[in-house]
Specification:
Length: about 60
């Protein structure tokens, strides 16, 4: 087995582990909050808001 194949397999395993961990964490969060997390573009919008509920675009527009 050459180094390229070995590192590719290691990368595949690492990626699989990350996806499984993310799915587990998402399920935990959904059960804790009592509702499903937003998916796709809605999720991007949800994550782009800061704790005050404003997006970066809204904050930039309010600056003089």
């Amino acid at each position: 087995m050459d180094d390229k194949t070995k590192s590719s397999e290691a990368g595949e395993q690492a990626g699989k582990g990350l996806r499984e961990a993310a799915a587990k964490d998402e399920a935990k969060t959904e059960s804790r909050t009592g509702h499903d997390l937003a998916k796709g573009a809605d999720r991007f919008e949800e994550r782009s808001k800061s704790s005050d509920g404003k997006t970066a675009e809204e904050k930039q527009q309010s600056k003089p």
